[in-house]
Write a structure and sequence with these properties.
Oligomer: heterodimer
Number of helices of chain B: 8
Structural class of chain B: alpha/beta
CATH topology of the largest domain in chain A: Rossmann fold
CATH superfamily of chain B: Pyruvate-ferredoxin oxidoreductase, PFOR, domain III
Largest sheet of chain B: 6 strands, mixed
Strand order of the largest sheet of chain B: 2-3-1-4-5-6
Distance between the termini of chain A: 52 Å
Order of helices and strands of chain B: EHEEEHEHHEHHHH
Strand content of chain B: 15-25%
Number of domains of chain A: 4
Number of strands of chain A: 23
Number of helices of chain A: 20
Radius of gyration of chain B: 16 Å
Chain lengths: 581, 193
C-alpha cells in the first residue's frame, strides 16, 4: 500500500516499522511533526515530550542501553543542548538501535542559525544518514537501526526543512518484531571512567574504519551512471535539485555519508571526467574528497550559505559550463508590496506584557518562542535573543556587567522548563536584580501547541502533574514572585513596574492560555465608534492584526477580533466597546 | 500520461486554508495516477505571515518546490499575496485570485501601504487572470469557509485532472457533513472561469 507522507511522518512510520518502542523529543521546527506522528502508533511505541533535548536524548539512550530500539527527535539547535550525552554515548554505544533524528533548517525559515548537523556526526564519530524524500526516510530508518545495533553506535538521521515538510509517496511495510528488553550489567561496557573510557576511545576509532566500509557497500548510497562527462555527488534534498537541473549527468547519491564511503568516492570519481560535489550548507563531503586527492569542484560553484534550489543549481550549471548566467524566463519581482512578517496573533496574551514594558526604559532580553515576535514594530520591546533559556541569563549577565538600565528577561513557559530554571536559580543564588517574566500561555505555542510539564497532559494524552512555575521560583530562592493576568493592563503595568523598580530579583508570571490553541473567543468582538475615535493610534501601537488603520480611520476587522479587550483599555476616549449582538 | 512535471502554487496568509487546498490538489493528482510531491510552510510563518504551498505531479518528480516560472496555475486566497509570487507562474499561466484584503500590521502601523491599485497590478502581472470574491461566492452557497474550494474549482480548469479525481480527493479530505457544500463550491469555481 502507498501513502502520501511528509518526511516527518515518514520518519515516524519508519520508526514504527523498525520496531521502535521508545520515542522522545522536544518540539522544534522543522522536526516537531515526527513525534506528533509517532503518537499515532502509541499502542506500540511509548513516546514523550521531554523537558529539553538533553533529557530526551538521555531517556532514549537509557532505553537503547536496556536493549530497546529508540528514537529521539529535535531541531538542529536542539542537538547543541543534547550534545553532551551524545558525545559520550558514542563511546558507550548502545544495545538496541538508537537513531537521533535531527532536522536542520537551511535558509533559516524558523531558526536562529543555520548549523550543519553533519559536523556533529564527525565530532562524535557517529554515522549519519540523509534521506532525500519520504520513501528514503522510511528505508533509512530501517538501515540506520541495523547499523546502530551491528556497530553498537548511536546513528544520526539528518533531515532538512524541505525533506521534513515535503510530502511524497511511501510504500508501507510491516512492523519488525521489537527487541527483547533486559539490561546486561557490565560496568566496563557502560561506565566511561578513564580506566575503561580510554579503551572505548580506541574502539570508536576501530569502529570508524569498519563503518566507512559499511557505508561504501550500503544500499542507501547509489551510483546512477548516465553520461560520464560529468559526475555529481549529492546528498539529501540536493539530490532532487541535481536530478532536475542535470538530468543527463551521472550521480552518486549519498545517503550514508559519514563515516565517509571512501571506496565509493574513488570508484565513482574514476568513472567520470569531471566531478562536482553538491551539498547543502557546509562542504563536508567536498573537503574530504579533496583530501583523498580526488580533483573536484564544489563550493566554487555552490555557495555554502542558505538553502539550495533548482534556480541556484541552474546558476551553478552555467558557471560550470563557463556560460552566461541563465536569463530568467520569468518576470522580475514586483516592488512596493507591504511586508507580511509573522506577528503575534489577535488576542495574544503576550501583547499585554510588551505593552507594559513599553512604559519604561529597560533592556529586555528575549528568548525563543512566539514572544520573539515582540521585537518587531510597533511593540519593539525585545533587545536581544540568544538561545533557549538565554532570556533569563543574558539579563543577569548585563546586570552584573553594570548596565545602568534595569534588566528584564522574558522566557516562555515551555522554554522555562526547557532551560530557564537553571538561569533563574543563578539569578537568585548570585544575588542578581533582574526581573524575569515568564509569559505562560500554557503550551508550546510557536511549534504548534505541544504539551509540556506545566500543562497537565502527556504527549500520549494521559493526565499528569502540572509543574508550577511559582513553586520553581520559590525553590530557587526567589522572594518576589507575582502572577498577573496579561489581559488586565492596569494590573500588568503595576506589577511589572513595581518589580522593575525593586532592588531584588523578581519573578513575574503572566498567565493566560494561548487563544490560538483554545480556538474560542475571549469575549464579544470589539468595535470602534468612529464618531468618538480621535485616530490617536494608541490601539494601533498594540500591533494587533485585527486593528486595521488607514490614513484617516481605524477599524477592527470582525473576522479577526476575538475580544481580548486590550485595545479598549488603551483607548483614551472610550471609542472602543463590545459589538452589540 | 505526459512526461513533464505539472506545478501548482497556492498562496495566502496563515490560517486561510491554503494547506487544505494543496492537500486536495495532491490527492486528486494521486487519484489520477501521477507521482506527487508537495511542500508547505510550517512554523513561524504560520503566525499571520505569507504562506505558500507547492504541489508538483507527473510521471517522475524530483524537487518538491516549484522553480521560478514553472507553475501552470497559481491560486490565491488573498489579493496582494499572489503579486509577491507572480514570477513562479509560467508566462501566460492561469492565476485565480480572490478579492480578499488581509491588511498586514506593517500597513496598520504605517510602515508600508497596501496597494490601492491591486486589481490593476494583478491584471498587469497575470495576463491570464480570473479574479472574483471567493468568500462572497462561498457565502452565497451557505458557508464562506468554503472559499478555498471555489478557488480550487477555478484552478482545476487549467489542470488535466478528471472530475472524478477531484471528487474522490475532496471526499477524502473534508468531513462528510461538509462534502456536499465543498463539491458545490468547487463546481461554482469551475463555472466562474
Amino acid at each position: 500500500m502507498q501513502e502520501l507522507l511528509s518526511g516527518n511522518e515518514a520518519i515516524a512510520r519508519g520508526a514504527w516499522e523498525a520496531g521502535v518502542t521508545v520515542a522522545t523529543g522536544y518540539p522544534g521546527t522543522p522536526s516537531t511533526e515526527i513525534l506528533e506522528a509517532v503518537v499515532g502508533y502509541k499502542e506500540d511505541i511509548y513516546c514523550e515530550w521531554s523537558p529539553n533535548e538533553k533529557v530526551a536524548l538521555e531517556v532514549a539512550a537509557g532505553a537503547a542501553m536496556a536493549g530497546a530500539r529508540a528514537i529521539v527527535t529535535m531541531k538542529h539547535v536542539g542537538l547543541n543542548v543534547a550534545a553532551d550525552p551524545l558525545m559520550t554515548l558514542s563511546y558507550l554505544g548502545v544495545e538496541g538501535g538508537m537513531v537521533v533524528c535531527v532536522a536542520d533548517d537551511p535558509g533559516q525559515h524558523s531558526s536562529q542559525n543555520e548549523q550543519d548537523t553533519r559536523q556533529y556526526a564527525r565530532l562524535g564519530k557517529i554515522p549519519v544518514f540523509e534521506p532525500a524524500d519520504s520513501q528514503d526516510a522510511v528505508a533509512m530508518m530501517a538501515e540506520a537501526m541495523e547499523v546502530s545495533e551491528r556497530y553498537r553506535t548511536p546513528v544520526i538521521l539528518r533531515s532538512t526543512t524541505r525533506v521534513s515538510h515535503s510530502r511524497s509517496m511511501v510504500t508501507l511495510g510491516e512492523r519488525r518484531q521489537p527487541n527483547e528488553v533486559g539490561f546486561e550489567r557490565n560496568p566496563p561496557r557502560w561506565v566511561p571512567l578513564p580506566l575503561w573510557g580510554r579503551r572505548m576511545r580506541v574502539e570508536v576509532e576501530e569502529r570508524l574504519s569498519l563503518l566507512s566500509e559499511a557505508a561504501s557497500s550500503s544500499p542507501s548510497n547509489r551510483v546512477e551512471m548516465r553520461d560520464t562527462s560529468l559526475g555529481i555527488v549529492a546528498a539529501g534534498i540536493a539530490y532532487q535539485y541535481v536530478r532536475e537541473v542535470f538530468p543527463e549527468a551521472s550521480v552518486l547519491k549519498i545517503s550514508f555519508g559519514y563515516p565517509f564511503p571512501d571506496k565509493l568516492f574513488k570508484e565513482f570519481a574514476a568513472k567520470v571526467d569531471k566531478l562536482l560535489i553538491v551539498e547543502e550548507l557546509d562542504n563536508i563531503l567536498e573537503e574530504h574528497i579533496k583530501a583523498l586527492g580526488i580533483k573536484c569542484v564544489g563550493k566554487e560553484v555552490v555557495s555554502p550559505v542558505g538553502e539550495l534550489s533548482v534556480e541556484r543549481l541552474r546558476d551553478t550549471r552555467a558557471r560550470l559550463e563557463g556560460k552566461e548566467l541563465p536569463k530568467p524566463t520569468h518576470l522580475p519581482e514586483e516592488e512596493g508590496l507591504p511586508g507580511r512578517p509573522p506577528v503575534l496573533c489577535p488576542g495574544c496574551p503576550h501583547r499585554g506584557v510588551f505593552h507594559a514594558l513599553g512604559k519604561r526604559d529597560v533592556i529586555v532580553t528575549g528568548d525563543i518562542g512566539c514572544y520573539s515576535l515582540g521585537v518587531f514594530p510597533p511593540l519593539s520591546r525585545t533587545d536581544t535573543i540568544l538561545c533557549m533559556g538565554g532570556g533569563v541569563t543574558v539579563a543577569h549577565g548585563m546586570d552584573k556587567a553594570g548596565e545602568r538600565r534595569k534588566l528584564v528577561g522574558i522566557v516562555g513557559d515551555s522554554t522555562f522548563f526547557h532551560s530557564g530554571i537553571t538561569g533563574l536559580l543563578d539569578v537568585a543564588y548570585n544575588r542578581g536584580k533582574s526581573t524575569i517574566i515568564v509569559v505562560d500561555n500554557r503550551t508550546t505555542a510557536m511549534t504548534g501547541h505541544q504539551e509540556h510539564p506545566g500543562t497537565g497532559i502527556t504527549l500520549m494524552g494521559e493526565p499528569t502533574i502540572e509543574a508550577s512555575i511559582e513553586e520553581f521560583g520559590r525553590a530557587c530562592g526567589m522572594k518576589r514572585i507575582v502572577t498577573v493576568n496579561p489581559y488586565d493592563l492596569q494590573e500588568t503595568i503595576q506589577a511589572v513596574t513595581a518589580e522593575i523598580d525593586a532592588e531584588e530579583p523578581s519573578l513575574v508570571i503572566s498567565r493566560a492560555p494561548c487563544p490560538l490553541k483554545e480556538r474560542k473567543p475571549l469575549g464579544p468582538r470589539r468595535i470602534i465608534d468612529e464618531e468618538v475615535c480621535v485616530t490617536c493610534g494608541k490601539c494601533v501601537k498594540l500591533g494587533c492584526p485585527a486593528i486595521e488603520s488607514s490614513e484617516d480611520r481605524v477599524r477592527i476587522n470582525p473576522l479577526l477580533c476575538i475580544g481580548c479587550r486590550l485595545c479598549e483599555q488603551v483607548c483614551p476616549v472610550d471609542a472602543i466597546s463590545k459589538e452589540e449582538e | 500520461m505526459k512526461s513533464e512535471i505539472t506545478s501548482v502554487l497556492l498562496v495566502g496568509v496563515g490560517g486561510q486554508g491554503v494547506l487544505l487546498a494543496s492537500e486536495i490538489t495532491a490527492r486528486a493528482a494521486l487519484a489520477a495516477g501521477y507521482t506527487v510531491k508537495t511542500n508547505e510552510v510550517h512554523g513561524m510563518a504560520q503566525r499571520g505571515g505569507s504562506v505558500t504551498a507547492h504541489v508538483r505531479y507527473g510521471e517522475e518528480v524530483f524537487s518538491p518546490l516549484v522553480p521560478m516560472g514553472e507553475a501552470s496555475v497559481l491560486g490565491s486566497l488573498e489579493e496582494v499575496e499572489p503579486i509577491r509570487y507572480h514570477n513562479l507562474l509560467k508566462p501566460g499561466g492561469l492565476a485565480v485570485v480572490s478579492a480578499q484584503r488581509i491588511i498586514p500590521t506593517t500597513v496598520s502601523t504605517g510602515q508600508a501601504t497596501y496597494p490601492a491599485d491591486a486589481e490593476e497590478r494583478l491584471k498587469r502581472v497575470f495576463p491570464n487572470l480570473v479574479y472574483f470574491d471567493a468568500v462572497k461566492e462561498a457565502g452565497a452557497l451557505g458557508n464562506p469557509q468554503a472559499a478555498n474550494m471555489v478557488i480550487l474549482g477555478a484552478m482545476s480548469t487549467a489542470l488535466d485532472l478528471s472530475g472524478d479525481a477531484w471528487s474522490e480527493s475532496i471526499a477524502a479530505c473534508v468531513k462528510p457533513k461538509f462534502l456536499e457544500l465543498n463539491l458545490r463550491a468547487f463546481s461554482r469555481g469551475r463555472d466562474l472561469v
